[in-house]
Design brief:
Arc Repressor Mutant, subunit A
Length: 460
């Protein structure tokens, strides 16, 4: 697999390794985000034992683990007979005084096989490994289970871990390295479809157009991406049917709680539970205006799907699976082509909220960046610094027309309606545009000290 970026994650793990003390590190993140490759890159050139758990019974898994560890330590007897339980594993590892990395991937499968697994690991760590010098990694794709088994206060391993690492999808600039020859504008089309998940990016052929990739790699019933979303949900959830309905509603613009209730027909209490689960799995997020003092208590929340591919799939695959199964890909593709510009515009707004951090030296340090809305008014980008009482307002335009002064003047009018620290704050402005800016806007920007960003490049 092509390994892109992850410099910060590797740095964090290597710092733990160089501490030369026993470590129990939890690595978790959504399926397909690249955790396994991260572990292998970290283990490269180190004494490294890697075990991938699965859904086989415990006897078979202990036999394979014995083979892997036996081969590493050149122990023919262990290689042949395997282990019988975890306490035997921990005791064996303690006897071997050398320092090494022991990575267990897809740890939640072990918990599924035996609910006492995390309690056994707690005992193993306390009685055998915490002073052994071992570098143990527990990794998993079931975010909810990894948190419940290793991170939250009630989990058996709470207080034992020496570090944790949430592996996030790649941001736009990182993801673009998969297609280094693509321009910002060209890669935006690919990114709006599959987002920053490495496994999804690897499915695309950079020599083919987005439409050709959609037909061949997503709309084809025999391809990996065709059923990927349903597979992921079935791995994580017991009742995927209702979650599918919720995610479809959100992807089609039903973002308020009441709208989702009406669209899905689910009761309010039931829906609240389902939404909380989807948030914990980081499949959706509850977005509130960037200036809200208490985001958790805000009644202005709008739900959004966090993964670009999930959003694409629910808009252009899930509703049309019957058509795609009988070979009507071109008809569904026409629906995508009619909506592609608006889909890219939504993603461009997200990308701009990432890019703006790269311009802090021209502005101020942001504590938080998001959107703002009030009744019928909306601002694409708002960033604040509460301590310095500074705020930036921005618009992100993904259109074929250069941005003119009317966009900026409208933004200034909307900024007046934002109540945050009104009368005491310092206002800043930034405009992002796919197609550049008119001469009048460039002149006005110099006069008003407005930052202008063409695509992802700051105009000097």
């Amino acid at each position: 697999m092509k390994f892109i970026n992850r410099k910060n994650e590797l740095l964090a793990l290597n710092e733990k390794w160089e501490a030369n003390t026993s470590q129990l590190v939890v690595v978790y993140g959504k399926r397909r985000v690249g955790k396994t490759e991260l572990l292998k890159q970290f283990g490269h050139a180190k004494p490294f034992i890697y075990f991938l758990a699965d859904r086989r019974n415990q006897v078979e898994q202990f036999r394979e683990l014995g083979r892997i560890i036996g081969e590493y330590f050149d122990d023919a007897i262990l290689t042949k007979r395997g282990f019988t339980d975890w306490i035997e594993v921990f005791g064996y590892l303690k006897k071997n005084k050398q320092r090494f990395v022991f990575a267990i991937d897809e740890y939640p499968y072990l918990v599924e096989a035996d609910s006492a697994t995390s309690s056994l690991f707690q005992k193993g760590w306390d009685e055998y490994l915490k002073n052994s010098g071992i570098f143990m990694i527990l990794s998993g794709s079931s975010v909810a289970m990894m948190e419940s088994e290793t991170l939250i206060q009630k989990s058996p391993l709470f207080g034992r871990r020496t570090g944790q690492l949430l592996v996030e999808p790649l941001v736009f600039d990182q993801a673009s390295q998969f297609f280094p020859k693509k321009s910002f504008h060209d890669f935006m089309r690919y990114y709006s479809i599959v987002g920053g998940m490495p496994a999804y990016l690897l499915q695309l052929d950079g020599e083919k157009t987005p439409e050709e990739n959609i037909i061949k790699k997503i709309f084809s019933p025999t391809e990996f991406l065709f059923n990927e979303v349903e597979f992921t949900l079935r791995e994580e959830l017991r009742e995927p049917k209702n979650y599918l309905a919720i995610l479809r509603a959100i992807s089609w613009g039903k973002r308020k709680f009441g709208e989702i209730v009406n669209e899905t027909g689910l009761g309010k209490n039931v829906l609240t539970k389902y939404l909380n689960v989807l948030e914990r799995l980081r499949l959706i997020e509850k977005e509130v205006p960037a200036t809200e003092k208490n985001p958790q208590k805000s009644r202005k929340g709008l739900y959004r799907i966090t993964d670009n591919f999930f959003r694409f799939w629910f808009q252009f695959v899930y509703p049309y699976k019957s058509e795609l199964q009988i070979g009507r890909q071109s008809e569904v593709l026409e629906r995508y082509q009619k909506c592609s510009a608006s889909l890219e515009a939504v993603v461009y707004e997200d990308v701009c909220r990432e890019l703006v951090f790269g311009f802090e030296k021209h502005l101020f340090r942001f504590e938080h960046v998001g959107r703002w809305w009030e009744k019928e008014k909306e601002i694409d980008l708002v960033g604040i610094n509460r301590k310095e009482k500074k705020i930036i307002f921005g618009e992100c335009k993904w259109s074929a027309k250069p941005v003119g002064t009317n966009i900026f003047l409208d933004l200034k009018r909307k900024a007046v309606d934002v109540q945050w620290e009104r009368g005491e704050r310092m206002d800043f402005f930034i405009l992002f545009s796919k197609s550049g800016f008119t001469e009048d806007m460039i002149k006005l920007a110099k006069k008003e000290k407005v930052l202008l960003v063409h695509g992802n490049a700051l105009l000097k």
